[in-house]
Amino acid sequence: MNSLTNSKNLTRWLPTILSILSPLLLIAAWEWAVTAHVLDPRFFPKPSGIATALREMVASGDLWTAIGLSLMRIVLGFLAGIIPAVILGLLMGVNPIARAILNPLAYAINPIPKILLLPFIAYALLRYGEWANIAALGFSIFFLLLLDISAAVQRIEPRYFEVARSFGANRWDVFLTVALPASLPSIVNTVKLGLAYTLTLVVGVEITLSVDNGVGYNTWNDAQVYRLDAYGAGIVIFAVLGLLSSLVIDGVTPTLIPWQPRSASAAELSPLRRWAMTWWRAARPWSFTASAVPVLLGCVIAAYDGYFNPWLFALTLIGAVSIHAGTNLINDYYDYRKGADSEKSLGQGGAIQKRLLTPRQVFLGGIGAFALGSIIGLYLVSVTGPLILVMGILSVLAGFFYTAGPAALAYIGLGEITVFLFMGPAIVIGAYYVQARTLNVPVALASLPIGFLVAAILHANNLRDLEGDREIGKRTLATILGRQRANLEYYLLIGGTYVVLVIAAISAAAPWYTLIAVVTFPAALALMRRVSANSDPAGLNPVLRKTAQLHMRFGMLMVAGWIIALFVNQIVRR
């Protein structure tokens, strides 16, 4: 019996073992081949030499600067290409007139090697500096993505469009409910292709457009002077960036396309991947926009004011999300211990209830996430100052004692206030301070709408759970105020978001372009009507999800408004 069990365990773990061993064996063979002169050491660096070069780059800080600059160009250039490509590709797929106008242009330009067009773009946009690099990357991938997305929409079965129209769908409904969802699987594959293409093109852009730093630029210079170890290090960096980008896209695909059939069931996954997926779901990644959006906002305001370090931005984002993940895990642990969450609860994390993880594992996972966020925070303190230390300590304490202890914040009616402060102004102001090393009143005012909306997410949760919380003695603002006044609080939080945004724009604390976020107001009104019309948990459960979506859309539109203002300022100054 034991031998049979051992055999099954070996079979289950064998793919994971081989996937780890195969690259290690390749590296060992490569090292031996260069040492034994099977491969000419004048042209092939040793893996050990590459590792030494990487270590020296890390120690000097040059690696993070180069990666930060290249990543900024890759991400912004990719977005500059993919966003218009998705919009116009979907339009071409459903509209024959748009297809007739754009198809000839796309088919004519797409085959041209984009490296030949880079000098033209350099001369045309040279006065825009860094934005020329981003525009060149966006232009280079645009036509490839446009044709792929258009073709994906045209492959959709015509009967789906006919059914939608027979039920009274207008053109916009057809676009949103048929064309976009049906083409999303193909769009995701196109995104992966475009991202890989962008990684390739960034080298050409950094060489051609007079760039003086970046992974591609440095790697090319190392190749020119036969610094083979540094040259190999650059290739390794691009390989890692490509691998990580694919993993990120694969990780978010199930969330973007939940209806798409999976190639493997959970039982068929390797133990390592199943373990990672379990922890990923336990951390509730769908909630991370609540911490990511304020970081983005704080950093883009800093960029608008002339301060932006991509490396510090990445660390701030990872640190904020780590503390958020730790808060989620610790909250699940203490809510379970206190009886607030059970198998019948709506919207809870579920890792403990489903017996995917033990309570102790969830608790230790939360402590580990807090530790990661704290380590990153200590580094940020070393380069910015003690203010971040104070904010970091208070954030961790607020996250831990949100549900921990006999006077947990969430159990004495302080949940909304805590979330408002620490996931609104604190993150926005902290992210800004990390970049600019200063504080100002306009940033604080611009952070308030994000704080109101994140508090509204929690309050929507408490509205849904009002009766259940009352039964177990959990005191939230919803249970303290009662249904009607708790509904009023929700209206004030949602309405206050838009009022403060308008005040920020009028007072010049935020650019007028940020008022683009007001387009989400009809969705906000629909949520307020739903809260008014429902009191049962099942009816209010969608309000929680849609409030979180409103937070993300509103926040990203605010970020877009600042980016537009930044672009306009760059153009005016030049």
Commentary on this structure:
The chain has 574 residues and is mainly alpha-helical. It folds into 2 domains: 56-259, MetI-like (MetI-like fold), CATH 1.10.3720.10; 280-573, Orthogonal Bundle (Farnesyl Diphosphate Synthase), CATH 1.10.600. 78% of the residues lie in helices and 0% in strands. The chain has helices at 2-35, 47-60, 62-94, 96-109, 114-125, 130-154, 158-166, 171-208, 215-224, 228-256, 271-282, 289-304, 310-337, 359-384, 386-400, 415-422, 425-436, 441-464, 466-472, 477-481, 483-506, 521-533, 537-573. Helix 8 packs parallel to helix 9, helix 13 runs parallel beside helix 15 and helix 14 (359-384) runs antiparallel to helix 15. The N and C termini lie far apart (77 Å). The mean pLDDT is 80.
Question: Main traits of this protein?
Answer:
574 residues, mainly alpha, Farnesyl Diphosphate Synthase, 2 domains
Fraction of residues in β-strands: under 5%
Residues in helices, as a percent range:
over 70%
CATH class of the largest domain reads: Mainly Alpha
CATH architecture of the largest domain: Orthogonal Bundle
Structural domain count: 2
Total count of helical runs of at least 4 residues: 23
Total beta strand runs:
0
Q: Remind me, CATH topology of the largest domain?
A: Farnesyl Diphosphate Synthase
Q: Distance between termini?
A: 77 Å
Order of helices and strands: HHHHHHHHHHHHHHHHHHHHHHH
Shape: globular
